[in-house]
Amino acid sequence: MCRDAIKVKNRGAGDMNHITTLFLQLASRLEESSKFSYERDELMKSWKDDLSAALDSAPMKHKKKATGKKYMNRSNGNIPANGSFDYGEYASDQEIKKRISKLNRKSMDSGSETDDRSSEGGRSSSDSTASDTESDLDFRSEGRTGESRGDGYSMTDEDEREWGARMTKVSLVPPVTRKYEVIDQYLIVADEEDVQRKMSVSLPDDYAEKLDAQKNGTEELDMELPEVKGYKPRKQLGDEVIEQEVYGIDPYTHNLLLDSMPEEVDWPLLKKHMFIEDVLLCTLNKQVRHFTGAGNTPMTYPILPVVEEIEQAAVKDCDIRTMKICRGILRAIDSRPDDKYVSYRKGLGVVCNKEGGFRDDDFVVEFLGEVYPAWKWFEKQDGIRLLQKDSKEPAPEFYNIYLERPKGDADGYDLVVVDAMHKANYASRICHSCKPNCEAKVTAVDGQYQIGIYTVREIQHGEEITFDYNSVTESKEEYEASVCLCGSQVCRGSYLNLTGEGAFQKVLKEWHGLLDRYYLMLRACELNSVSEEDYLDLGRAGLGSCLLGGLPDWVVSYSARLVRFINLERTKLPEEILRHNLEEKRKYFADICLEVERSDAEVQAEGVYNQRLQNLAVTLDKVRYVMRCIFGDPKQAPPPLEKLTPEETVSLLWKGDGSLVDELLQCMSPYMDADTLNDLRSKVRARDPSDSDDIQKALQKSLLWLRDEVRSLPCTYKCRHDAAADLIHVYAYTKSFFRVREYDAFTSPPVHISPLDLGPKCADKLGGLPHKYQKTYGGNYCMGQLIFWHIQTNTEPDFTVAKASKGCLSLPEIGSFYAKVQKLSQQRIYGPKTVKMMLERMEKYPQKPWPKDQIWSFKNSPKVFGSPMLDAVLNKAPLDREMVHWLKHRPTVYQAMWDR
Ligand SMILES: C[S@@+](CC[C@H](N)C(=O)[O-])C[C@H]1O[C@@H](n2cnc3c(N)ncnc32)[C@H](O)[C@@H]1O
């Protein structure tokens, strides 16, 4: 579900390292003691406890995900469009798996531990053999779920076996059985016409040829084409499918069961996995069918009666192997009282109820719900966040999904949000699986895009219907709380993926800082027209009339510039991700398959690419709405930034009311005698650069003169002329200033937030009543959102921009250096350290705000901005050396005691 402003947090390498260490310790200890199954069990248990403790402070790991699928949308920021991904650390999973797999081979392939040990031949654990590498590769391809799962789940290697990599938290919060109002078509919540337009299909004229070219592989199309399907009725609820309570097992339990299977049964490991996935989970869900979800449903359900039922059926069918497996598990349950052989409740799910099951590529049901235009959905999320403030409880269940137009549609990409929380059909009950039997995809049916659930393989009677949510969150807490109970062999441990950090942000940070973004915005505002090249680049990214129609030219031009950055990032990111992953891995392991790593990094970078386009689409929808509300026609929205002419710059700095010099003289007045001040005033007037032929040069000369005048005045701790002189110096070297044009602020109509939207605990706190939230958009909202186009969790991006601009984009107020209060404070220090800090920001981190809690103060919403750092970005030149040199070498004229 789209939830609020979840901060981008680091996953804590330390914690991950701890988990990795635990894994490796376990692997080594098990290698040592593989001869004694009992000992192994004990080790498993102790390790499990260790890991559990570690997991309390660290996120679980996961592997990256498929591309090209629909996903449930958990977070409203940084959502990958076509799949989700891991941020690096998953890499060590694979090595751990390899070690454990090796260990398992030893313990399982041979009945004799002596043989096991001698077959190892004293090799060190880091020694590499052909079979090691193969197994490693197999595992990795398995991790690349999109391709490998799509082709029939053929990736299972007999030797691969996952040992309780993740486990359910004891405090797992149960899902609340929500009731929904049944609908049989999409219900549009706002902007009906606009949303209809976004949902309607427009096939390109050459659709048939393109489709052929794609099918024959003669043309590699970058954009997915609409998938046209004929109308098919959905499977009937209560007949072909049923809604019922479903239970599942976590990866730990999956592996516990594997470990409990007797070794003498000559079943390949794959069969053992299949026994759990197909037989055990099916039988389990048949047994729990009678629970109604109305109070009589236990949170856990024992595995014992499930295995007993399977055993009885096997006896009837004379299925000796299944009988043996069941008896082995039953013996283990009996002899290992400390191990928890339980399944956990997932809430209501959907189960195939058709004798004979469903065939492959069969239509199951549309994912119906209320359809929100993106702006409205994010307004609602802002409201939810506001109401949930400080709530530490796990997030409520989520039922929303993005309906994205395929980029290959003639009118291009765009999106709307389908929320099935309140009004829905049974598709909203379908649970997630890391190895699903269905997929959710956008299809074109009768000229309208819809999200359809389609089978990806045959499904048997009694089997639970699942799809991969491919959902992401930016919250570590949410991620950890979402323990996946799909029970599959390839379970990632969480049904959410953690996003938004590490290597994935590297290119953005390096090439697309605040000033870079302002640069793009300034150029777009200056030109206020769309070039042919702009249209071409936008079109190549799949952005067309659907998303861009009706927007002012400067916004379209800015979007084209963003797309160019997104393309640049797409080329640079795979290397960055690869470097990061290799760096992480090399800390622990010697054998790394570069080719596999490279292809992993490419898949991950592709996910980021799609996510960026998605964020751009959401941003454009938000600003279009605001512009529409203010100007009627969004096209009328004027560019928010305008460069000052030299005359205007003179007014800003030298002679206007409220100019820099005007403020300076006012701030100085309490500290100077009237004659000196008047003298200075008349000198300033005499140096007005307005009439000069080269106003800019003359203005700089006047400012530098003023700097020296001010420096020569006597300082006190409250009256820091020396610091004011430094600031005048910096202004003197700033060439371009820009005016910010504010739009009118306005308040949007209310959005309704129900207790269900807030999650159980939060809803209680608010008295279980529905709430209304009305968002107020400030005058600089559009500019703020466009500058922070890649983040959607910012309720007030205008304030974020103002905060982020302090120092780097807007210089401090001159009044900062003249104390208005008597009190001496720590923050009035302006010594060599402060100057060094300032210079460091200017030179090394020009796109970062200046440090907080210093002598500097800044306007909260500056009307004009400009800085030497912005000049450097605009001119693609280094910071003015002369300016820096003077600041570094001018003699100190005053030093307060505390400055030192
Ligand atoms: C879209 S809903 C699915 C229907 C839901 N169980 C119900 O009762 O309405 C998503 C929620 O179901 C539960 N769920 C779905 N798949 C799960 C899984 N693989 N493991 C654990 N819980 C799951 C989680 O509580 C999740 O927030």
Automatic annotation (TrEMBL):
Residues 58-84, 101-160 are annotated as: Disordered. Residues 121-132 have a biased composition (Low complexity). Residues 137-150 have a biased composition (Basic and acidic residues). Residues 327-470 form the SET domain. Residues 60-72 have a biased composition (Basic residues). SUPFAM superfamilies: SET domain (SSF82199). Signal peptide: none annotated. InterPro entries: ATXR3_C, SET_dom, SET_dom_sf. It comes from the Eukaryota. This is HISTONE-LYSINE N-METHYLTRANSFERASE ATXR3.
